[in-house]
Amino acid sequence: MKPANPRGVRWNLTVIDPPSFPFTHFLFDTVRMLAFTLEELGQQVSVTQNRLEEGCLNVLIGVHLLDDAEEVEAIIDSGKPFIVLQTEMVHGRTINRQASDRIDRVILPLCRAARAVWDSSPENIAALATLGIPAELLVFGYQPRLKEIVLKAERDIDFFWYGSVTEHRRKILTELDRLGYKVAVSFDAPPIFRNDLIARSEIVLTLRHSDEMTHVPHARILYTVANECLVAGEGGDNIGPLEDVFLWDRGHDVIDFLRCTRARPDLRELGAALRDRLAKRPMRDFVAPLVEAVAA
Q1: How many C-beta atoms lie closer than 10 Å to residue 174's C-beta?
Q2: pLDDT in tens, 16-32
Q3: More reliable by pLDDT, 158 or 237
Q4: CA atoms within 13 A on the CB side of 26
Q5: Cα(39)–Cα(34) distance, rounded to whole angstroms?
Q6: What's the pLDDT score for residue 48?
Q7: Which of 32, 41, 96, 263 could disulfide-link 4, Cβ–Cβ 3.0 to 4.6 Å?
Q8: d(CA 227, CA 225)
Q9: CA 187/CA 194 separation, integer angstroms
């Protein structure tokens, strides 16, 4: 495929990483997916921490972590062009269903000043539209450079969950453990340890945050599927293009669904088949039109 922008706009992915927030690394797979895809499209890409670059089209990732209105003003007043990649769920004036004045102090001012706003959730795009912010859909697809895990021939973990453990998730994990399955849980382990647990697991779980927050974590699922490990668990409101690349409960008993899934004799073949299905949807095909539009 020819470069999405033959003129060679330089891109910088600005990761918002406050010193007081220790979990910014949860965004890193999203950052890598976008960086790799832009490079695949022939673009020059850099990644910086809390810094916009001169002479670049900057993509702000993690803007919900900004809290200081003066920082927001400094970004806008710098004159450096930027795009906002909106990664959290917005409903009215809440972020992830929690009331927050950051909508008015941070999100809206940045979005109004941005050259473009990208979001991977149609629900979010509709919510932002009610706040006067036009946003474009960024669909995450297959990125071959994410393939970095060699799965173990002998896997000693039945179910692996990585991410925060909410009350909803804890109930499911506890019940699977009670039923005698080997369950591994990791909140924020560095990739070297997380990836070893993925390599040892028959199934990587995807679970809702709660009954109120049901969105599907696209980057987490895509990363695991790209590495041929089977993902199974719960679906969500924004499941969209992922609905046929992992297994999810279409009823009301996720425990029974996971038990039946674990009992299947073809888990590894299925993991490879779903990766192959995802590979037919390269992320570059979804990103290229956005790059063309914003660089014009």
Answers
A1: 12
A2: 998 888 888 888 999 99
A3: 158
A4: 16
A5: 9
A6: 97
A7: 41
A8: 5
A9: 9
Geometric angle at alpha carbon 169, from 31 and 195, rounded to 5°: 45
* Sole residue written with tokens 């020819």: 2
Amino acid in the structure at residue 164: S
Torsion of CA 61, 130, 220, 231, to 10 degrees: -170
**The whole model's pTM is what?**
0.90
Tokens of 31: 């950052």
What token pair was written down for 154? 């002998």
Q: How far apart are CA 103 and CA 24, in angstroms?
A: 19
Q: Say if CB 162 and CB 186 are below 8 A apart.
A: yes
Whether the Cβ atoms of residue 126 and residue 115 lie closer than 8 Å to each other: no
| 110, two tokens | 């940045």
188, two tokens: 């924020």
Which pLDDT band, with edges at 50, 70 and 90, does 202 fall under? very high
